[in-house]
Every structure is written in C-alpha cells, then in structure tokens.
Amino acid sequence: MKRILTLILLCFFATQIIAQEKNINSFISYGTFNVTSENATPYLETYISFDCSSLVYVKNANSRYDASINLTIIFKQGESIKNYDKYTVTSPEVADTTNINGFFMDIQRYSLANGEYQMEITIEDANNKKERPLQVSETVVIDFPENICFSSIIALEDYKPSEGESVNSKNGYDLIPMIMPYYPEAINKLTFYTEIYNTKKVLGENEKYLLNTYIKTFESNTAVSNYFFSKRMNVKDTEVIINTMDISNLPSGNYYLVLEARNRNNEVIGYNQFFFQRSNSNYQIDNSILASIDPTKVFSGNIDNIDTIKEYIRALAPISSQIENGYALSLIKTDDIKTMQQYFYSFWASRNTLSPQLEWEKYYAQVKRVNASFSALRMKGYQTDRGRIFLKYGAPDRIVQNYNEAGAYPYEIWHYYTLANQRNKKFVFMTREIATNDFQLIHSDAVGELNNNRWTTEIYSRTYSPYQEYYNQDGSINPEFNYGDDAKDYYENPR
User: Fold this and answer.
1) Domain ranges of the chain
2) Phi, psi (deg, nearest 5) at residue 262
3) Which of 163, 395, 416, 463 would be 407's cystine partner, CB 3.0–4.6 Å?
4) Are 1-144 and 170-283 equal in CATH topology?
C-alpha cells in the first residue's frame, strides 16, 4: 500500500541569502511494482516533492538562483544494506528570490526482491547548515506472489501518453503522482494508476474476471453509495488501469479507494486499497433517511434523557467521519431529542445492521475504560488524544511510558503490531505537565494520523533549542545536537 510521510524541517536562513524565517516543506510517498518478465525483480518508486518557496536559494554559475537538497536513501534487512543511493536534487532556476512559489518533484526507482525492508531517508538542505538533517525510517514490504495481485495504487495529478522513456514513464504513460492524497472542494476528480498481475497465469487463456472499484469510509469500513463500478476484464500478464472517478458529491471525510478482482464464482482473488481525504463543505446529511426511523421501535428510543443522549453522541467523535462529527455537533446544540435518537440509531445501524445495540454497548464499555484512564483537566477521556486513538484502534500491543528522562518532557509511545491492514504502527504522545494527564499526539506513522518526523525535537525542547547550529564552522557536528537517542530507541525497538 502506498504510504505518505510528511517532513517538516524548521530552520532559520542566513540573512545574506534571504532575510526571513522559513519552514522547509517536503513530502514523500512511495509505491511498489512488479515486473512479470522472467527473472525480473520488483521495484519501489520514491516520490519526493519540495516546496520551492521554503528552500534556501543561492546564486549559481548562470547568475540565477537555485536550491539544492542532499538525499540519502538506504534499504536494509537487519544490518545488511540491500540497496543504497546518495544524490543531490537541484531546484528549477529562478531569476530572483523575491517571489518563489510552486513545487518540484524527484522520482527514483530501486530494484528490491520480495521481502521486508527498513527504508531510511536522510534529507538535508545543502545551503542551510543550521538545520539537523532529517532522518525518516519506514518499514516497507515488497510482496508480489505468483497469484493475482496489485501494484500500489498511485493517485495522479495528471497523465498523458509517453513521447519517450523517462523516470515519469510507465507502460506507455507519463505520470505525475499526487504526493498528498487530499482532495479539496476545488478538485472533483480522483484519478489513479495501478497494475494487476498474473490473471492469465492463474485463470488461464481466454478467461475473464470482474474488476470492482469502490469507495469505503475509513472509520466504519462501509461502502459509500453511488461509488461502486464494475468492469469485466480479459486476462493478461500485466493489466494497466488508469481511471478517473467523479467525487463532486463525496462528503468530507477519510476514505479508502478499493480495487478488487473476482472470479466466475464471485470470489475475491485480488485486492488493494488506497487512503485519501476529501473536503467538501457543500455536502449535507440527508435528513429524510433519519426521518424514516421510528425511535419507539429501536433501542435508542429508550435513551430519553436529553443530557444523556447528548453525551453519548459526543462520545462517538473518535470513530465518526468528518461529516458525522459536523452533523453531531450541530445536532447537540438543539433540544431535538427525537432526531438525536434517530441519528444515534442510524450511526450504529450503519456499522452493524444486525445488532446495532450490541455494537454500541461494546463501544460504550471502551468509552468508560478510557474515561477512567485518560481523563484530563476539563476533558473526558474520549476527548483526549490517547482516548481517541484507543477508541479508534483498540488497545495497543505495547506501551512505553517514560516520564522521568533527563532533558525530556514526559512521553508515551504506543505500538500496534497490526492496525487494520497496516503493520507495525506507532503513536507518540507528549505532555508538558504530567499533573494534567493530557498527553497530546505529536507523531504517528499510521495512515490518516499526524505525521511529524521532527517529533524528537518537541520532546527534547525542554532542554535544547531546535534552532541551534547543527554544524560547527569546521563542518563537524555540534555535540549539543546529541540528544533524542532514548526516545528514538524506544520508538524503533518497542519493549
């Protein structure tokens, strides 16, 4: 599955270059692909974009200005390096630095056999010696078996037929990936690229299969009405799929784009999904659906105290979509208990059609648990970051609690072995005052959560300034930057 990593580098620029403070913004994504020809090796593509306005520009030999980024990419299995690359990316030239805008992208390909790897990326502004190089570590899996399978699903900003071979070319198309899977109101088309492998090998010559494409909600894992398409496909060694979906009427929220292949018996024989976010303030919940529910005939009709049902609806926030949360907040402001009862039933019926009451009772047991463990000043447990994560994903498999590390604010690291279809995901929480019990989420590598690969800077800002010089004048590393090893160790090796 395609993963998104957001890199935010904080630094000050030398006044002789640009006399203002800036944040260097870079976004990284990757995808994995197979090659079905004999003895060929699968590969991983990295997509790294840079915000031009956030970089340090210097005059070049052409008397124009450009920026330079040093990158190191390593793929490891244990202590063994399986692939390695170190290079410099140079921005497009500009005539002056007074009004720099836009993005530029770097794409690289790395051959990797099936297996699990630790991908380590180091990124450094070559023209800024105040900033500690950013190091990103991510577990990646290359898994292309002999049965039917998909490549990563890549969201596209644009594509066109190839006029020649380049790093952007793939199977006859030049692709421009969309690094951040976010679709604001101004973007009403979701365009994507993927590949399907081995249908001919598995199903046989002249066979057909069904390709289903649909959207489901991230929170409840339910399909969204009117976003389901099917197409009968002929078998191939490699099938290239480029499609566009109209999402004009898709409500705000977090979603998965799902592709699945089914055989003649309607059995799923291949599956993949892609996470994305949608913002669409024009969409409203259809109240006619709620109006059809008779509260006297469902369990929510027994919740006849208005303060109680308001509190129950508030407690749904950690597992609600954006549109559900928006509607719930507006509903709570009213005293319309009937509509609240209708909404409450509809919410749980959409998650468990057969036993909505049982689903609510199971969830409420967890709400009481997080209220007992994570409540903070003026906040119930379900309103805190730890409570939200617990209710949304369940109890973590491991928790590191480090409240007394020298120079560090109290922090916790939660480790999930599996998270839906994700593996080995972590959440980092921190508080500036242990007495409040309000630990805030400062970083996670889980899809759809806050991703801040400078999280150690926040934890150790109790003692160290993030704006100290990383390099001494002689090019050596400033020893004052030698911090954060304990937190990094706990993060990379939970115990």
Assistant:
1) 1-144, 170-283, 287-385, 396-492
2) -125, 145
3) 463
4) yes
Rounded-to-integer distance, Cα 488 and Cα 458, Å: 13
pLDDT in tens, the chain (495 residues): 443 343 333 222 222 223 234 556 788 899 999 998 887 899 999 999 988 887 889 999 999 999 999 999 999 999 999 999 999 999 999 998 888 888 899 999 999 999 999 999 988 889 887 777 777 888 899 999 999 999 999 999 999 988 888 788 888 889 999 988 889 888 999 999 999 999 999 999 999 999 999 999 888 788 888 899 999 999 999 999 999 999 998 988 889 999 999 999 999 999 999 999 988 876 666 677 788 899 999 999 999 999 999 999 999 999 998 888 888 999 999 999 999 999 999 999 988 889 999 999 999 999 999 999 999 988 999 999 999 999 999 999 999 999 998 889 999 999 999 887 788 899 999 999 999 999 999 999 888 888 887 788 889 887 765 545 555 555 555 555 555 568 888 887 777
> Rounded to an integer, what distance in angstroms lies between the CA atom of residue 268 and that of residue 446?
26
In words, the CATH class of domain 1-144 is mainly beta
What are the tokens at 348? 């749980």
User: What is the CATH code for 170-283?
Assistant: 2.60.40.2550
Residue type, 79: E
What is the bridge-based pairing of β-strands 182-183 and 268-278? parallel
Quick one: three-class SS letters along 94-160? ECCCCCCCCEEEEEEEEECCCEEEEEEEEEEECCCCCCCCEEEEEEEEECCCCCCEECCCEEEEEEE
